């Protein structure tokens, strides 16, 4: 049972904003989904530790979102508290060629800060619609660069509520996976090491990267990003193409005709629409190619 009055009092003490019965459709890039019991905007590592400790002590379900770009929210919402790692917890600090970001900092903002400081290494990550914490959680990558290539350490909250530091060597980073995946640890900050470069050349590379995304991906429609993980030995979009599934629809959800690796929201999609469409895609791809596709976004329910 959530005592909203008590929780609101704790948030006031910590200086965190709280929104009861908050519609999550406003906080995820797919733009659908029900409400959570309360949404709290985290403003520091200490407030995150105290609030998560409170949730655990009171057996309250909680979830964490950043930019909401790799999440599918259930139509019935989330019966618990969502902790938002975003604008209130998004500082970026640069010392030499080291860039340290709060978990809620946008990855794109970190790329811009690095470019302005003449630091190279993040160009290919520009345009990934997520936070730095979320990017590390899933070892995000694009165009040959992954977080694994630049991260050197991270601060996180362990299962016992203690703030700890972990080095890259111990993060178990692999394709769309880290040691944090599937655990109740919470990333608080990420530290990356970059190389030196010319700011204009870095900016040109970032612009080229963004132009590629705009040309190939359906950025004009809400989505969760890439819908399926890359299966070993092939690509999800290639398999979906081979099965002739571009433009396949279920309610307001559709396989993008621009890039078949994206299921998009045509403006009135529900979670049920998306999951039904994804299930049908997986079934057909398995029957016709033998490959098993796995969803990349996390389902929040």
What does this structure look like?
By secondary structure, this protein is of the alpha+beta class. The chain has 3 domains: 81 residues, Uridine Diphospho-n-acetylenolpyruvylglucosamine Reductase, domain 2 (2-Layer Sandwich), CATH 3.30.43.10; 125 residues, Uridine Diphospho-n-acetylenolpyruvylglucosamine Reductase, domain 3; 65 residues, UDP-N-acetylenolpyruvoylglucosamine reductase, C-terminal domain (Uridine Diphospho-n-acetylenolpyruvylglucosamine Reductase, domain 1), CATH 3.90.78. Helix content is 28%, strand content 25%.
Which descriptors would you attach to this protein?
301 residues; alpha+beta; Uridine Diphospho-n-acetylenolpyruvylglucosamine Reductase, domain 2; Uridine Diphospho-n-acetylenolpyruvylglucosamine Reductase, domain 3; Uridine Diphospho-n-acetylenolpyruvylglucosamine Reductase, domain 1; 5-stranded antiparallel sheet; 4-stranded mixed sheet; 18 strands; globular
